[in-house]
Amino acid sequence: MLSALKKGDKVVTIGGIHGTIQSVREHSVVLKVDDNTKIEFNRSAISSIVAAKEDKEEEEKQENE
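Now predict its structure.
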């Protein structure tokens, strides 16, 4: 799972912080947790992926139909 992380994925850290991945680095990811707040975490701190960017776009598309 950790190697499959990509920009736009919604994730939860092991500390319970929810955010959206803004960038992926070799050993870390940068999460956007609020409008003006970004935090860098080790990849190993990611507990789960909530939804991918594509999933969100598909849901929005279905809502508009």
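Helices lie at 53-64.
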